[in-house]
Amino acid sequence: MRHQRILMFTEPEIVSSEDLSVRAYVKVYVDCERHRFYNGKELGIKCNPNRARTVLERNKALAYLEYQLKKKLEKGWQPNQAPAQPKEPPKAIISAGQAFTELAKEIEQEPISGDYKRDLRLLNGHFIQFLITERLANGAC
User: Is 76 exposed, middle or buried (0-12, 13-18, 19+ CB in 10 A)?
Assistant: First the structure.
């Protein structure tokens, strides 16, 4: 059985002042470590309270930042956690000739006019002939 670690955090708290020249942020303690959020970059949202032109505008942005932070923490997100990198399937290495032969098949599936398909087929065929003539058809793309 796999045990999931329980994340402990305090209620996020807005730290601000009436002076716009003083930077404001949202503070939270996660597993006894203090974290300050000046903007939403780490949360993956567009929110920049310290670029606000009025105190009211900044307070609204801070409230939004606080709300989004709490939602993320409740879902198990941790500060300084590297975002999961999407795994890309390994790319097959194919020759230039194979690539253009595959392209010819895809051209047929495109919702374009018959004349345009014909022109693309001819151009593709001429290019494949060029690759063969220049002995480039079997080179990897």
Answer: exposed
